[in-house]
Amino acid sequence: MSKFDNSFTDELRQRLSLVDVISRRVPLVKKGQNYWGCCPFHNEKTPSFSVNEDKGFYHCFGCGEHGDIISFTMKSQNINFVDAIKELADMAGIKMPEIKQKTKQQIEAEENYIKITDDAAKIYQDLLFSESGKHALEYIKNRGFTDEMIKKYRIGYAPKSNIISSKFNNIKIDKLTSTGLVRVGEFGPYDFFRDKLMFPIFNAHGQIVAFSGRSLDGSEPKYINTPDTELFHKRQTVFGFNFARDAIHRANRSIVVEGQIDAIQMQNHGFGETVAPLGTALTEDHIAILCKSNRNIVFCFDGDNAGQKAAVRACTLVLPFLRDTSDVKFAFVSGGKDPDEILKTHGESAMRKIIDNATPIIDFLWETINKNYLVNTPGGRAQAEKYMKDCISKINDKIFKNEIEQEYNNRKFNQWHKWKKQEYKPDIELPDVDIMTINLIKSIVQTYQELAEKYMDFFVSLNISFDENVQKTNLSLKDAEKFIISFKLQRYIKKLESDKQNLLNDALNGKDYDDQLLKEIDNKLTESHQKLELLLDMNK
């Protein structure tokens, strides 16, 4: 019988939750690591039908029925294999491929691929402990890696020479290039990874399918990954998942951090359930893989602007996967640190405190909206409402969606529309603005709604709470707007001067600096001072 390419059926199993598919027809209750219900294939009163999400199969201890997500769809609906695949593809939102049988050559190519990557990992491992890899070994040990950790994760070193293309010169070049380890240039084959600390990338079955190489000389990018191949797709690969799978079940959650070193250190310091996306932003595919194992997720990001943006993106991606049993939270590591540094300087207890104090997704989304929209004005509230509705619409569980909507309606009534509002305390320090200026800005915002909406982004960036009522300003609309513009210019000039001083300090300390950037800052300073002088002249 002809069949689909295994990669497509594997993708269906990866993207779809067996529990979700079966629970559409069979009410399931979680007991231990499995889900239980009454078997749909024979009559019974006592549940004997077991579903194992992790292993991807169901089994009835009453009638003996056993299978996976595809066989369940076929048997429960009495349809053939092709129709079952079509239905599951529609659920997963992916396009149906042509039906084709995997050839003997394709099977052989996959086996060769895995053998090459595994043999390459052994070469890199040996080189890490050689003279040429001395600096790489020193680096990874300074990062707190023990010999046991290096062996477990099969970390190695790719030298500056073309070690792979020379060692595998008896293998056809197209087989080598298919793994992404070797490329062909004008002068022949050459290694893709050179002078890199090598982290093997494992698939869910524990096979090495790719590598991530870290630079050791401070050059950017810090990491380069194997390009996408037939067996490796970066957007669909969760780093460390093969090691974390059992821990995720034991801990009843997964933790997502930003980088592979963070993930490895977390796994080896009491947080075995930790994983990371691989050299790319978090994707829907990453979320699908994690939710198939467990829908309880703690996203742990750096506390800087990039980390905050990553968290907002993760929040919007995970919304369609939420269920009433989900427990999704967001934790932030502040002070310019990352989990690796926290573990080294403050230990496991400090990291556990950060994870335990993570913010639930419902509160995180609410705080995000209040930080990014001026909700004390009608226009700001309207924009916030649109964003909120868009987010809520992504939740697929209808009953749960209604509950979330009601929760936010209550918060809007109590916090946005009542005179006595809850005090909003930003989690970052207030800017260096004197109290008289703050009160004047509050007064302008509360007096002139059109200015509040026109300069909303600027007011939000000040991190000032506008809940407190102040006396109306005596400034006219025109003068109030001039004040805002001049205040913005002065703050912009102050930032430019600070950037310029930092560049000059780098130059004095013998560090490299961008001369062109310094010229651009000078030009912007001149232009900004001219605008400010013109504005001041208009006020005379």
CATH class of the largest domain: Alpha Beta
Helix-residue proportion: 40-55%
Please count the helical segments. 22
Supply the helix-strand structural class: alpha+beta
Count the domains: 5
| DSSP strand tally | 17
Strand order of the largest sheet: 12-14-13-15-16-17
How far is the first residue's CA from the last residue's CA? Answer: 88 Å
Please describe the biggest sheet, giving its number of strands, its sense, and whether it closes into a barrel.
6 strands, mixed
What does this protein look like?
The chain is α+β, with helices and mostly antiparallel strands and 540 residues long. It folds into 5 domains: 6-92, Zinc finger, CHC2-typedomain (DNA Primase, Chain A, Alpha-Beta Complex), CATH 3.90.580; 104-232, Alpha-Beta Complex (DNA primase DNAg catalytic core, N-terminal domain); 236-366, Dna Topoisomerase Vi A Subunit, Chain: A, domain 2, CATH 3.40.1360.10; 373-461, no CATH class; 477-539. The chain is built from 22 helices and 17 strands. The chain has a 6-stranded mixed sheet, with helices on both faces. The protein has a 5-stranded antiparallel sheet with strand order 1-2-3-4-5. Helix 3 (69-77) crosses helix 4 (81-92), helix 16 packs antiparallel against helix 17 and helix 21 (477-508) runs antiparallel to helix 22 (515-539). The relative contact order is 0.05.
